[in-house]
Each structure stands twice: as C-alpha cells, then as structure tokens.
Design brief:
Layout lengths: L1 H4 L9 H12 L8 H8 L8 H19 L5 H11 L3 E3 L6 H14 L4 E5 L2 H17 L4 E4 L5 H8 L3 E5 H11 L15 E5 L1 H7 L4 E7 L14 H9 L7 E3 L6 E3 L1 H11 L11 H13 L7 E4 L2 E6 L4 E2 L3 E2 L2 H10 L8 E8 H6 L3 E6 L6 H8 L3 E3 L9 E2 L3 E3 L2 H17 L4 E5 L2 H13 L5 E3 L7 H6 L7 E5 L18 H7 L2 E5 L6 H8 L9 E8 L3 H6 L15 H44 L10 H14 L1 H33 L10 H14 L1 H19 L2 H6 L7 E6 L7 H9 L9
Parallel strand pairs: 1-14, 1-15, 2-4, 2-5, 3-4, 5-14, 12-23, 16-22, 17-22, 18-20, 18-21, 19-20, 21-22
Antiparallel strand pairs: 6-13, 6-23, 7-8, 9-10, 10-11
C-alpha cells in the first residue's frame, strides 16, 4: 500500500486472491481431489477458472498437500499460488513455503492445459523439489519431471514432455540453443516455452538478465583466441609474475583496471625479447594485459577455485561454484596459465542467448522470491507483470540489531571473533555470512584459534550445502558460509528434527551475523531472512569496515582528508549500496540496449532457418546459379538426395554465417566505448555497424551455397559436398562470467556514475 501511495510502479495487492482463499477456507473438504472434481477443473482448458473453480481448487489443494506430502497449505501459500497462476510476482519471507506454493501454482496451470516450467537456480533444487512434490502432483494426476546436466537428449525430451518440468535456468537455455542447431527433420525441438514459474525471480530476471548463455564448439584449426600462435600464455604469465605492484604496474582505487608503468613496460619487453610492446605487428600487448588482469584482478578462492587440476569459476553473488561457466577464452586461458594448469580447448561461439531473452520467449512469466518487491518496478518494466507481497503466517519477531562499524578490516575481524566467542559460549546457534571462500576460511581459522569450533560451507564443499545448512539451528553450532547459503533449505531451531527447539528458543533463536555488507541491500536482506523463520525468535547484526569491498568499490573515502572526516556508520554503507545499485542498473540498461539488435537479427535468421529445416528455401538464400546447379544434380542423383543436400548445405551456411556475424558484433561492441571519447553516441555507432553488417548476411550465405553447389557439380557427388561441411565434432555450453576488464557497457557505466561516488560529510 505504501509503495502505491508513493507512486512506485509494478505493485500488486492480491485482493482478489485473498477473497477467494478466504471463502475456500470456510468449505475446505477433508478429502483429497476426486476424479470428478479434477475432470471439471481440467475441462476449463486454458480459458482460466471462475472464482468458484478457484475456490474448489484451493480447498482440494489444501487437503491434498497434507495427505500427499505432509504439509499443510496455509492461506498465504494459497494466495501466493493463485497470484502466480494469475501471472504475478510474489514476495514471501524465508521459511514461508515457496516450494509448496510454486507446486500448487504449477498444478493449477497444468490443470488448465498449460505446460509449466518451474525454473530454479541450480540442478540440485530442480531435482529435489520435483521429487519432493511428486506425490502431490500424482494426487492431481499431473505428470512431473526434472532436467539436470547429466541427462542425455532422450531423457531431457521425456522430462519436457511432462506437464510440469523442474529445470535450472541455465539448462533450459542450453536446450533452447541446441534446438536451434537441429539438422534432422525427425528430431523435434524438445523445449516448448509456455509458462515460466521462476524461483528467486529477482536474482534470475534482474541480476542475471544480461548474462549470456553460450553454445560453443571446438574452433577450426585456423581460429585462435585473438593471440598469435607463437605467443605462449604460460611464458607471458611467468613474465608478468615478476612485476612489482606500484613500480611496474598500478591498480586503480576500485580495483577494476590495471595498467603497466613505463618501468613495467621496459621489464616486459626485456623478459619477452621485444623491441616495442606496442608495435602493431604482434599481439603481445593483448597477451600481457590478459595476464596482468589475471594476476591482479581475478583472485583465487574469491573468483575461482583450482580443484582436480581444473579451473572452477565461483559465482560471487552466491559463493558457490558456477557450474559450466567460464570467462571469455583469452582471459580464461590467462588464468589457467597463471595457475600452471593445462589450457582448455579453444572454443568457437556458435550461438548465445541472454537470460532475459530466454524468459521473454515464454508465453507467460511469473515468479517468487524473498526480496522481489525491491525490484517490482523493474520486473513490470522488463517482463510485464506486477509483484505483490504475501504477509508471513506469523508476524516476525526477529531483532535486527544496528550495524557495528569499524575503520579497518583488522579491527572488525577482532571484534567479530570476540563477539562470536561470547555468543558461542551460551550454545546459541550462529550463522555467519562472508563474502568469499578466502574470507570464510580466514574467519574459521581465527575462531578456531579462539577456541570456537565451526562448520564452513563454501564453494569447496558446496555438495554438502543442504545438509550443513539444515543443521545450522542446532545447539552449540557455529556455521560460516559464503553469501546466499542454503537457498531452499529450512533452518529449524534445535536441528532437523527440532529435538532441542525449546532450548534454542530460550536462547533467542538463530543468530545471523553478516561479516560484511554486500553490494546489494537485497543480498543483505536475504541473509537476515535466515533468522526468525515463521515467527521464531532470532537476531541479526552486520559487522562492517571502511575498507570493505562495498565501500572501496563505490565511494571515494580516501579523498576525505585521510578518512578522518568520514562518519563510520551504517548510513555510509547504505549510500555505497545505492551507488552500486545505480551503477548496476545503468550497466543493465546499457547492456540490454546493445543486445536488442543482435536479438532481433537472430530471430530473423531463426525464421529463415526454420523454413529451410522444414524443406522450404526462402527467397535469396539460393541464387539463380545455385538453383541451376541443384537442378542438374537432381537429374543425376534424384530429388530426395538433392533436397537433403540442399537442406544440409543451407543450414550449415546459415549457422556458420551467424557465428561469424556474432563475432563481428562482439568485436565492434568491445571497442565501441572509445567512440564516447570522440563525443559520438556509442550505441548509435554500434547500431549502424550491426545493420550494415546484417545487410550482407543473406548475400554471404547465398554466395557460400553457390560455391558449394559448384564444387559438388565439379566432383559429380552430392555426398562430397556434404563431407566438406565442417560442423564442430563436439559442442558444450557455458555461461559467460563478467570479464574483469569490464564489459564495454561497464566501462561506460563507470564514467557515467562517477559523480555518484561523492560523499556527504
């Protein structure tokens, strides 16, 4: 109500849903769904339900949930389920039962004849929730499946044929990309995007909206990662390792850029035997910059781990391994060289799709989160749905204590350890959230030295995440976790079976401590939300210092007379978070602008491809010359063989030309930020390049097809023409991680938002 009064858009009130649930509660039957009742609900088709049918569903759902999975569906969960069914975003506090609410909404959608994808943040949650809720789906006669990375295409097809499919956002994106490259008409697309019900809707649809998900293949022998074949990243990494910080290179205050000094340039030239590092006849400058960034800006046990001889990227927002993610090829190889690892196979990007484009491809979108209201306006603007809040079943009595702010990390660490020692002596369970793997291990060591035993959860043991978090409410338990610990796992006071519940209640419930403030207030809110579940008592407090990352990266503290004039209080951190959020929003908006034209162009190419795939060759893709050649081949080899040859040929060159076109646009975008220095509009220049390049797309495909047809005629064999078409021998998928160089949009955003970094007294 307050948000509407203040004129904040994108907010829903859920009045209709509350009225329906209130009336359904009065007539709740004592039995699970009857076949006759289900048949009546199914008969409505996709038209939607009347208020009476919704009341019937709510009453039946409440009974079925208790019978099938032993969970009572409370009014708030039924309100949330109806709101999701109606296409809204829903905010529910931690522990209020989003999993059940989402399952009930998915069941309702399936009963209406819709195909529902419940999109999770990882494979573990997709499988767990599908298996957990399976008896409930069975009670309604709804088929349910789940998809994870290890499934083959046939297993995935079976899962997607279910009425409700649980799948991570990345896996469904990869399947969409794979569907785009089908060549056999008998191979139907396995993904049909109808309804997307998104868990952690703010993280997926806003925070990760611009993240590219990539389908890649092994690069052709004549391709490289932008470096000359005679440049060995390991040799360059060794040379860069000898450089001295402050003398040979300098890192800027927000640790986003690093550059060689004149002394450093001279040392590198001597080490690598170069006359001029900046000469245009070699690529050593690029290799050195990559190695320098890998050394200084990408930190082991913060941004990545080295495990089993391989580089594993850490999702810094969640503190977990980011499965199947990598940096752009050159940087990834530079980090591998820095760590003395073998270099990954060089890849060629075949296609990509952003999370935003993936989700916007669904006919209907809804979602839920514990912090969705903070981005309600953005969700409405980007995806067209409004978001409302479902009140907790029991009012929260959690005590959020004032931040404890210190001038340095060392001071903060000492105070934090002393505080945890005092609390731990009482036996009260403590959950401490840290910003990185390294920070979690450093704190664990300090507490161990102070006599406090801890359980550490970070990317190194994330396979044990659910078990560790589920036990965080036990008497005497001190758990240290990287940010976003155990999403989807309840922390029950007294342990999983709550045997010590009364004892923990007497101590004040779970005590959550933030070891630093994050760059987003939503992340802080999600950590706080681990305490005070369903009206339980609990407390939260954050420890922070003026040299924490959120301050260093977003505020110019050093400019204030040695820092003496800076007020070391929570308001400073609130301001830093606002700056960070403004920068992120500027970056998101800018990145989306740059992605619009390629997305439209890709859709145009996919329409052409779909026609070719089904036996039609749209005008322009074959010239008069190639048409005549195909006619001659048809006389020699028959219609069926030549139709197959033509389809394979045109599909190959459409795919190859798209890969080339995407690479050209990526290169143009990489350098486009320099246009701002000349007072040009970078986006306008980029648009001009994109349109100009795309005008040549169909003519290039047509020319390549004509050349291949001529070769087949000369060889007198259509199979010879097909054999010459090289598709990657293997493909793989990954999500592109932020480049520490900063994307072109990030570099622009830093300049645009620099004024926000001023402090008030």
């Amino acid at each position: 109500m307050l948000r509407q009064f203040l004129g904040i858009g994108g907010v829903a009130e859920f009045r209709l849903e509350r009225r329906v649930v209130a009336s359904a509660e009065l007539t709740r039957p004592a039995a699970a769904p009857r076949p006759g009742a289900l048949a009546a609900l199914r008969s409505s088709g996709t038209r939607g339900w009347s208020a009476e049918q919704e009341r019937e569903f709510c009453a039946r759902a409440a009974a079925a949930a208790e019978e099938a999975v032993g969970l009572r569906a409370y009014p708030g969960q039924l309100v949330a389920a109806l709101a999701l069914l109606h296409g809204h975003g829903v905010q529910m506090a931690t522990g209020e039962g989003k999993t059940l609410a989402g399952a009930l909404a998915a069941i309702a959608g399936a009963l209406q004849g819709r195909s529902v994808h419940v999109l999770s943040v990882n494979d573990y949650l997709a499988r767990r929730d599908a298996e957990w809720m399976a008896p409930l789906y069975s009670a309604f006669g709804i088929s349910v499946g789940w998809v994870s990375a290890e499934l083959d295409r046939d297993e995935r097809r079976s899962a997607y044929l279910c009425e409700v499919t649980y799948v991570s956002v990345s896996e469904v994106a990869f399947d969409v990309l794979r569907d785009r490259f089908r060549t056999d008409p008998a191979d139907d697309a396995i993904v049909e995007r109808d309804v997307a019900l998104v868990d952690e809707v703010d993280a997926v649809l806003i925070d990760e909206a611009t993240t590219p998900l990539v389908l890649a293949g092994e690069a052709s022998p004549d391709q490289d990662d932008g470096l000359a074949a005679d440049i060995d990243p390991r040799v360059v990494a060794a040379a860069v390792a000898e450089l001295h910080d402050g003398t040979d290179f300098e890192v800027d205050s927000d640790r986003r850029n690093v550059s060689l000094t004149d002394a450093g340039t001279a040392r590198i030239e001597q080490s690598l035997g170069l006359t001029n590092l900046f000469a245009s006849d070699h690529d050593h400058l690029t290799a050195v910059n990559l190695a320098l960034h890998a050394r200084t800006l990408v930190q082991r046990d913060v941004d990545y781990l080295v495990r089993d001889g391989a580089l594993e990227v850490v999702n810094t927002a969640r503190g977990r391994i980011a499965a199947a993610q990598r940096w752009p090829d050159g940087l990834h190889a530079a980090i591998e060289a820095k760590e003395g690892l073998g270099t990954s196979v060089l890849s060629e990007v075949l296609d990509s799709i952003t999370v935003r484009a993936l989700i916007r491809g669904y006919a209907s979108v809804c979602g839920m989160s514990g912090t969705a209201m903070d981005v309600a306006e953005l969700l409405a603007e980007s995806y067209g749905f409004t978001t409302g809040e479902v009140d907790p079943r029991v009012p929260s009595v959690r005590d959020d204590l004032p931040d404890r702010v210190f001038r340095t990390r060392d001071e903060k660490q000492r105070a934090l350890v002393e505080h945890v020692v005092v609390v731990a002596r009482t036996g009260r369970p403590v959950l401490i959230g840290t910003g990185s793997v390294a920070a979690s291990e450093t704190l664990a060591t300090a507490l161990a030295e102070a006599g406090v035993a801890t359980v550490v959860l970070n990317a190194k043991n994330d396979a044990e995440e659910a078990e560790i978090i589920a036990r965080a409410g036990e008497f005497g338990r001190v758990t240290i976790s990287t940010q976003m610990a155990g999403r989807g796992t309840d922390i029950r006071l007294g342990g999983v079976d709550e045997h010590d519940r009364e004892r923990i209640l007497g101590l004040g419930g779970l005590y959550v401590i933030g070891a630093e403030r994050q760059s987003s207030s939503r992340l802080d809110g999600q950590l706080r939300g681990r305490a005070g579940r369903q009206g339980d008592p609990g407390s939260t407090v954050f420890f922070a210092s003026l040299d924490d990352d959120v301050i260093v990266a977003n505020l110019d503290v050093a400019e204030k007379e040695g820092g003496d004039a800076i007020r070391a209080d929570a308001a400073l951190f609130d301001h830093a978070q606002r700056v960070a959020e403004a920068t992120r929003e500027q970056l998101r908006t800018s990145t989306l602008h740059y992605s619009e034209i390629p997305a439209r162009q890709r859709e145009a190419v996919l329409r052409l491809r779909e026609g070719v795939f089904h036996g039609e060759v749209p005008e322009g893709l074959t010239s008069d010359e190639s048409a005549a050649g195909l006619a001659v081949l048809e006389l020699q080899f028959g219609t069926e063989a030549v139709v197959e040859f033509r389809r394979e040929l045109v599909l190959h060159h459409l795919d190859a030309e798209w890969s080339r076109h995407a690479a050209v646009l990526a290169a143009a975008r990489e350098g486009i930020h320099l246009r701002s220095l000349a007072r040009d509009d970078p986006l306008a220049v980029y648009d001009k390049i994109a349109y100009s390049e795309f005008e040549q797309f169909v003519p290039r495909v047509s020319a390549a097809v004509a050349e291949a047809v001529a070769s087949a005629r000369a060889a007198g064999r259509v199979d010879a023409g097909l054999a010459a078409l090289r598709r990657p021998s293997s493909t793989w998928t990954y999500m592109v991680v932020d480049d520490p160089f900063g994307s072109p949009e990030r570099r622009l955003a830093r300049r645009i938002t620099r004024g926000l970094r001023r402090l008030v007294g």
